[in-house]
């Protein structure tokens, strides 16, 4: 099946509009591996333009003809034939056909961080005429540079011929959507240019799912989804107690009354909300990476902060975020507005200064100032590569102030001689925090964050 395209073209180009189509295809009968994503074009827009590059031939022909007549020189007069032929070539060349089938295949739609994702773009000329000049530029996600191969090409396609672009992208955390591809065809004379933007819906999702982490500490007296050790309103049975005047009728254990003739009241486990502040270590010291072009500890910290904040907000917890690099603090709140505010803040911590709900100059190396803004029952999650001792001291201070602290620490030490020394120093910091009763999630950048969290929670519950 193909889709006819609308275009705003010159009268000459409009005559060939029937040649412009992009095959949509039916994928229902196509079998592909489970980890591959194959998509074809669904919508396209065509822009046809006439390029005036041959008018100079007419000018040359007229000038040569007039000069030859004036000078009565047949040689000069015959020179007008050259200019006339030059102009005629441009005007008689037909507009380029654009009957194309476009298909993009992504080798893994949900790869692991650090993997290479292979992408194949196949463009087929399904018309009955050749395309003399076809430029192809695939819409690669901006955050994923091409690691190998080419995502663009300039080719000529015979009728029924297919050209294939193959390239690889590094799998970086986040959701990355493709755009395009952009196809530009020109006729042999270059007088007509036809550009097609095909919407092929492809995406790569890397490490964006995370079950809500189990955080220790106190809860808030507001409804939420964190189970407590207190009886009250809820859905999970907690205990029974002696009936007291004023207890609601639906809480009385009538079965027990039928057996013993004694009134008792059922209590359920209360589900309350928590207040959580996520601290992101994005200082200069945290801008360390295992490889020269790899993700930094600060970038992984921001990634972890977004995943945790979104998960906690989804269960009605109050969540705030602090940036050590910018010194700014998004005060805890709930709801979709807070979710959007935190997402924008972590994209650009300095871009939301003087906005409602954002405090500045709160945590510029002074943890005491930050503690002054924290609720006394607030839980704290620190995302840091532990590149120096200052974060250890800050975490100890937060613990001493009565906050339940969990540290998520990506291991950014490289496999070099210098990296071995840094790994020893980091291990000392990890041991120091564990001795202080701090929960740690040790996270290898080669693993998804959800894997590291699950491994840590098994260790905590052991």
TrEMBL record:
Annotated Polar residues bias: 1-10
Domain DUF58 span(s) in chain numbering: 240-407
Ranges of compositional bias, category Acidic residues: 24-34
InterPro entries named in the record: DUF58, Ig-like_fold
Top-rank taxon, per record: Archaea
Classification of source organism: Archaea, Methanobacteriati, Methanobacteriota, Stenosarchaea group, Halobacteria
Full protein name: DUF58 domain-containing protein
Pfam family, one: DUF58
Region (Disordered): 1-42
